[in-house]
């Protein structure tokens, strides 16, 4: 980074820190009371998608200082470099082009001078033909029976995306039933296969590298399950694979017409739009899968073209940065008020934490401030009866991101949807407003409690409030809205990464544990004595071996 840019960045960050201490709003209640236009000033809409950050401690000065920072960090230039196929993943020397996978513009996107769009179209067409064959029953298993169940074996980005989206899109399912196996724990595959008939089951092995130990182990277990039941020759008819390592898939015995490729410029956690989305396409059909891509493309176009103050991913990223790096909040809760988005927090955990959980800058220097927050969550209203106590009265401030649809998919249960909406709004209002000691006392006094009891109980019923939240509303969770929502979050992670000054697209931090697990396997199984291990690891190995009777 040029020294001039480094100075601008430092100056912008210092200005933001000073503003947090003095100029930024201190009290949301009074800020709302003073400014009746606060909602319209601090919310944005793209078609039916609304992003409301008015319940955060920001004002016009905050946003203008954040915009200065974005400029100093060259966020827009970096964004353009990503869309142009430049190798912005500098530690792996790769382009970052998940946006090409949903490029519906008909325009070319080039990597090293070559248009990637024809290859993307070819894979999408093959996925569609394969999905349609399964969905219509034209593609059958070895016993000439139609496929009723599809098991996706993958982990991380090769599982979370399709698993989350397939659940989210359940009102659109009209194909075979989908199942997902990820964990190396044999319980996962055992429980999944237990209810299935090998003769009517297709297994998809999804792995970008085709080396991931969990996936390859589960794949071998599934292969044996098929071969034992139907014979070795049946394997080809009951497997498909999604990978960038086509040679390795071939060696597993999967026929070429059932191998769906993708490219090294697609990161695992950004791969749902590629052939990794095959399970989703099988469940909802190619047309709805196309709508899913359309939604993401609409967000891409918006992100690419909208000026900063009107740009949803930019604003979400800037406010996210404000919370993490300037206000010092260490985590963010994502609470979809949508049962079908119950896997979204886990999906966003990988997207955000694997991207922005970094300690060095793009230049390999230690970062000078915080990077990505802990991301966690559960659907509302369930979370309200579990961890919301801490969100409201705990000693940490945790910004919450509420996601909700104006309309549900169950018109006959619209009263329940209204209750869901009321709960979602109530939580953000309570976090913002809180309840003062006077209010708590007045409420208790109205219940005719003795004065001493009012005094004793009231402090426990105080809510400090002033706790930030962001609300995201779309009309209905359909394929288009889901694609658009995920793309919004992807670009937000991108924006925050540029502000942190890190590379969001590698994940070296997962390597060490993998290496040590490989080293420890023969130790745990007893083939090798633990040596050069710390006392804790040695003690644990000895305990486990004893308890396992080995
Ligand atoms: O855990 C690291 C990781 O490489 C993720 O980034 C990735 O999504 C996951 O493992 C699965 O990798 P693969 O698709 O190569 O099996």
UniProtKB/TrEMBL annotation:
Transmembrane segments: none
GO BP terms: gluconeogenesis; glucose 6-phosphate metabolic process; glycolytic process
Gene Ontology CC, one term: cytosol
Keyword Magnesium: no
Superkingdom of origin organism: Bacteria
Keyword annotations of the record: Cytoplasm, Gluconeogenesis, Glycolysis, Isomerase
UniProt pathway: Carbohydrate biosynthesis; gluconeogenesis; Carbohydrate degradation; glycolysis; D-glyceraldehyde 3-phosphate and glycerone phosphate from D-glucose: step 2/4
Substrates-to-products reaction catalysed: alpha-D-glucose 6-phosphate = beta-D-fructose 6-phosphate
Compartment list: Cytoplasm
Broad class of where this protein is predominantly found: cytoplasm
Record-linked SUPFAM superfamilies: SIS domain (SSF53697)
EC number: 5.3.1.9
Disordered as annotated region, ranges: 530-550
GO molecular function terms noted in the UniProt entry: carbohydrate derivative binding; glucose-6-phosphate isomerase activity; monosaccharide binding
UniProt-annotated catalytic positions: 354 (proton donor), 385, 514
Its biological purpose: Catalyzes the reversible isomerization of glucose-6-phosphate to fructose-6-phosphate.
Family that this chain belongs to: Belongs to the GPI family.
PANTHER family: GLUCOSE-6-PHOSPHATE ISOMERASE
Protein name: Glucose-6-phosphate isomerase
Originating organism: Phyllobacterium zundukense
Source organism phylogeny: Bacteria, Pseudomonadati, Pseudomonadota, Alphaproteobacteria, Hyphomicrobiales
Name of the gene this protein is made from: pgi
